[in-house]
């Protein structure tokens, strides 16, 4: 889980970059739109919040649609960057803490339970589930679409561990382009893990970047807020990652184009 949490957090700030890089849906129902990406279109199309949940003055106000940017980092070293208020189901949060679930993970899961379930399998409603069965949870999680997804191991006793899904990339016109984007993300995950790279920045900035990334010609004209220096974390003897104590990980961000982030900062080494 340590590696999965780390990878989830470090990939999250990359999602707006790939959203702009892969943007491929400027036309809807034969109309040419002012955006190049489907992100906000699907977010609006799946927004099932009630009027009270949409109202900022409402008791049950929920800030985002169920299809939107993620709301909290998971790794303990990333917690200072959770700068937006996260609404979560307090009952479920306490239940998770009581059985030893880490607080960031408990908050992440309890945050999903503020949503109404959309999918229930009729033949599963009255079944007695064995301990460890996650079918109902999987159905809830698959109906909450974020730019990143943190998935527990499957319940079939396989050797598959915790999984991280990178979700904003749009499908391209050719197999070659799709393969290129997939390979880029896979190779980036290996680099992040091998060098313990730190990309996290305030979630509010990632949210803002996602809104910039969907605009027309964002890949050429928009600037995204990103760390302006590549830094790394340290590995402890027990295999945990921690922030360096020499101040190297102090966050300094700058507004850069996608080209500057990928070809100058990442490829050029910052």
Structure description:
With 270 residues, this protein is an alpha+beta fold. The protein has one domain. It is 37% helix and 12% strand. It contains eleven helices and twelve strands. It has helices at 2-11, 15-22, 39-45, 51-54, 90-98, 103-112, 135-141, 175-195, 203-213, 218-221, 258-266, and strands at 27-28, 31-32, 67-68, 145-146, 148-151, 163-166, 197-198, 224-227, 231-232, 234-235, 241-242, 253-256. Strands 1-2 form a two-stranded antiparallel sheet. A two-stranded parallel sheet has the order 3-4. Helix 5 (90-98) packs antiparallel against helix 6. The longest helix is centred in the C-terminal third of the chain and has 21 residues, at 175-195. The protein is globular. The mean pLDDT is 88. Belongs to the glutamate--cysteine ligase type 3 family. Its EC number is 6.3.2.2. InterPro entries: GCS, Gln_synth/guanido_kin_cat_dom.
Short characterization:
Helices cover 37% and strands 12% of the residues. With 270 residues, the protein is α+β, with helices and mostly antiparallel strands.
């Amino acid at each position: 889980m340590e590696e999965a949490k780390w990878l989830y957090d470090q990939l999250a700030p990359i999602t707006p970059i790939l959203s702009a890089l892969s943007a491929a849906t400027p036309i809807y129902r034969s109309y040419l739109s002012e955006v190049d990406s489907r992100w906000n279109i699907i977010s609006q199309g799946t927004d099932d919040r009630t009027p009270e949940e949409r109202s900022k003055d409402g008791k049950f106000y929920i800030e985002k649609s169920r299809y939107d940017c993620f709301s909290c980092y998971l790794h303990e070293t990333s917690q200072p960057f959770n700068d937006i208020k996260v609404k979560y189901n307090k009952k479920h949060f306490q239940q998770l803490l009581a059985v030893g679930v880490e607080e960031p993970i408990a908050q992440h899961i309890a945050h999903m339970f503020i949503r109404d379930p959309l999918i229930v399998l009729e033949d599963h409603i009255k079944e007695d589930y064995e301990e460890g069965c996650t079918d109902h949870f999987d159905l809830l999680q698959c109906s909450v679409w974020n730019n990143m997804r943190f998935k527990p191991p499957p319940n079939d006793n396989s050797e598959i561990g915790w999984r991280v899904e990178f979700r904003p990339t749009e499908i391209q016109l050719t197999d070659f382009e799709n393969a290129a984007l997939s390979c880029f993300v896979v190779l980036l995950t290996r680099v992040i893990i091998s060098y313990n790279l730190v990309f996290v920045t305030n979630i509010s900035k990632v949210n803002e970047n996602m809104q910039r990334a969907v605009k027309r010609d964002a890949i050429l004209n928009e600037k995204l807020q990103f760390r302006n220096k590549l830094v790394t974390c340290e590995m402890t003897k027990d295999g945990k990652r921690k922030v360096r104590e020499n101040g190297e990980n102090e966050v300094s961000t700058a507004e850069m184009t996608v080209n500057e982030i990928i070809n100058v900062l990442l490829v050029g080494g910052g």
